[in-house]
Amino acid sequence: MTARPPNILFIQTDQLTASALRAYGDTVCQSPHLDRLAEEGVVFDTAYCNYPLCAPSRFSMASGLLPSKIGAYDNGSEFPSSIPTYAHYLREQGYQTCLSGKMHFVGPDQLHGFEERLTTDIYPSDFSWSADWTDTGRSDPNDDRALRIAGPCRRSVQIDYDDDVCFKAVRKIYDIARSNDERPFFLQASFTHPHDPYLCLKEHWDRYDGLNVPAPEIGALPRDAHDAHSLRLLDLVGMLDKSYPDEWIANAKRAYYGSISYIDDRIGELLTALDDTGLSDNTVIVFTSDHGEMLGERGMWFKRTFFEKSLRVPLIIHAPGRYKPGRVETFSSLLDILPTLLSIASDGNWNDASDVLDGTDLTRFIGQEGVSEIRPVLAEYLSEMTLAPLFMIRRGRFKFITSSADPDLCFDLEEDPNELENIAERPDMERTVAIFRRLASETWDADEITKDVLLSQRRRRLIEDAMGQGARISWDYGEDPGDVVPWYRGQRGYNEWAFEHIPVDKE
Question: What pLDDT score was predicted for residue 454?
């Protein structure tokens, strides 16, 4: 008799850097449910996103293809309906597929293979966030208001959203348990925390009373210590050559940790629902984030860089009955999510995908000691704050970053984990850098990608401007033109929206 395929609960957070969790060496974070998943599951030691920005990272993850291959250039890029996702593949394998929460889908297709969607998105589905390399003034960057107001709050729009995501996902678990649908389920619960603003409820803030939330290891650096991309990023967000009060930084980090505790509570509700319905034993739980967060390292906040805090994400597979708890040292990335989910669903017997995937099935590394395969991990950045495509390759101990607009960077992460010494021009690194450059040129056609990006930006800007004339048609899931919603819909600056929705009586 063929065993019933497992259910899959895929939990995703937003902007959670791996190093903030106990499973990755932190000693302060109060996240008992995540700690339990890590202790009982398989932890991937070095997992990367493939684009340190929300929408491109998620599109790439869902498709198993590098962002540049599917036109995922920035947060305002359309995710084409013609690109299969893990929801399509799993649905083809007989799964019922359901999404609760954020996926940042841009375009009129807001399902991308999901049979059911329980919530709208917190961010806009139109082209309002399209980047423009010809005019950095069109960018909508973060700024230091997130530091000035960091701390406990009574409520925020992000908390409202994630409460709704959790409630509907929990209810869906109970609905599945009492339904007559015999299909296994794939349920993605995708939260917006701990994304800035750095705010949390007082109950989560109080969990860190008397605890020493770690300060940034590397504080703000002088102008001449930054690489070209970091200079642009810091300049555009207004943080270059600025230092901030220690209290602001401490509050921001404590609130960020409090937001992790908030998400951990929501994860606890999902786990309780699985237990209460008897679905736990045959449900595989996969946990990750779309990208990391610099958290003040080098004086940088938010993401958009290839430094470790921004690029590394947690990745945990919890399936004690299937996989022995342990750790995997072989490098992984979000590109591996799709083939790994299909392998879990089919016990390793899934058919080839329609595309040659850029990821691989991670279950083949589970249970192996040490690094079982030296595989390069790839990442891209094609959005605001760059003048040309930026590419990253991590292979072995080295990380290599290249762009036609900037000098090459190379870091030895074993000797220099804080990435302070660029060794790309060191004579003894000439052969290693040459190998990386060749690999980059074989992987990416930078000139062709540049032409494609610029054309896409022009097209989307025209469409966005045209859609602003007359009656505006909404692509946002479950919303009609003219609906007034609390979520961000791109009609004004992100910061104005994010900070307006914070109650005046913040503690």
Answer: 97
**Helix H or strand E encompassing 246:** helix 246-276
Cβ-based neighbours of 477, under 8 Å, separated by 6 or more: 110, 111, 117, 119, 120, 121, 125
Backbone torsions φ then ψ of 316, nearest 5 degrees: -135, 135
- Paired tokens of 367: 């249970």
Asked if residue 465 belongs to a domain, the reply is: no
Query: What type of residue is 346?
Result: S
Condensed to tens digits (0 to 9), the pLDDT of residues 233-259 reads 999 889 999 989 999 999 999 999 999
Q: How many CA atoms lie within 13 A of 194 on its CB side?
A: 36
Diameter of the chain measured on Cα atoms: 67
CA nearest neighbour of 191 among 316, 14, 10:
14
The total number of structural domains in the chain stands at 1
Q: Whole-angstrom Cα distance, residue 380 to residue 390?
A: 6
Is residue 464 a part of any domain in this protein?
A: no
410 assigned to some structural domain: no
Assess contact for 467 and 124: CB atoms under 8 A: no
The type of residue at 348 is G
The amino acid at residue 207 is: R
Q: What is the DSSP string of 31-48?
A: -HHHHHHHHHSEEESSEE
Could you tell me the CATH number of the domain that includes residue 77?
3.40.720.10
Beta bridge partners of 17: none
DSSP state of 225: G
* Gap between the Cα atoms of 13 and 190, Å rounded: 6
User: How many angstroms separate the CA atoms of 247 and 316, rounded?
Assistant: 33
Measured in residues, the chain has a length of 507
Q: How confident is the model at residue 506 (pLDDT cuts 50, 70, 90)?
A: very low
Beta bridge mates, 97: 186
Q: Reading across the β-sheet that carries 409-412, which strands appear in turn?
A: 377-381, 390-395, 398-402, 409-412
Q: What is the pLDDT of residue 181?
A: 95
Mean pLDDT of 176-181: 96
Q: How far apart are the C-alpha atoms of 274 and 281, rounded to whole Å?
A: 9
| Catalytic residue list | 54, 104
Q: Does residue 494 form part of some domain? A: yes
Q: Roughly how many angstroms between the first and final C-alpha of the chain, as a whole number?
A: 59
Mean pLDDT of 440-446: 97
The SS3 call for residue 154 is: coil
Q: CA 262, CA 322: separation in Å to the nearest integer?
A: 29
Domain that holds residue 88: 7-376+487-500
User: What is d(CA 33, CA 41) in angstroms, rounded to the nearest whole number?
Assistant: 12
Compute the half-sphere exposure of residue 77: CA atoms within 13 Å on the CB side of its CA. 30
**Is the CB of residue 100 less than 8 Å from the CB of residue 187?**
yes
Question: What band does 501 get if pLDDT is binned at 50, 70 and 90?
Answer: low
